[in-house]
Amino acid sequence: MIPTTAEIMKRRHTAVMVLRMMSLLFLFASALPLLSWMLEGMSDADLWDLDYYLGRITISVAALAIAAVCRFFDRPLSRWIVPIPSPECPSCGYSLEHLRHPRCPECGISLPGALTDTEVPPDEPPPPR
Predict the structure, then answer these.
(1) What's the whole-model pTM score?
(2) Taking the CA of residue 105 as centre, how many other CA atoms within 13 Å lie in the half-sphere pointing to its CB?
């Protein structure tokens, strides 16, 4: 079944909410290594020994970058995750608009019935291949 515009928008809204929750999760995950570095570095008085803390800083920056991408590109990502289906044959690309039979007239591939515009009368045979 081809989803309606309302269903697509609902799915995209859900995708945006999931991406924003992931953003918050990665933001929290990026703060933990930084806090660990700060607390351990201040207690040992070697806060600027970056060779020792480079792994923690790298993980924190990577998680922060993922959080920023999830938050600031949430709408384009949701459009990529939930695309609008196109009425084309998956095999040859022939336009399936106003198709009456669940078979592509160009290549003959059998299609799901949801791609047809109208119901086929029971006495009308499908077109030959």
Answers:
(1) 0.65
(2) 10
Query: Could you tell me the CA-to-CA distances from 68 to 14, 62, 101 in Å, in that order?
Result: 19, 10, 47
Quote the CA–CA distance of 127 and 129 in Å, as a whole number: 7
Q: List the structure tokens of 76.
A: 């384009």
Contact (CB, 8 A) for 1 and 30: no
Q: In the chain, what are the domain boundaries?
A: 5-81, 86-129
Output the six-digit token pair for 74.
């949430």
DSSP H helical ranges for the chain? 5-44, 50-72, 74-81
Q: Which is nearest to 57 in space by CA: 33, 79, 39, 78?
A: 33
Task: Provide the token pair at 129.
Answer: 């291949």
The string of pLDDT tens digits covering residues 59-118 is: 999 999 999 999 999 999 999 999 887 777 777 888 877 777 778 888 888 876 655 555
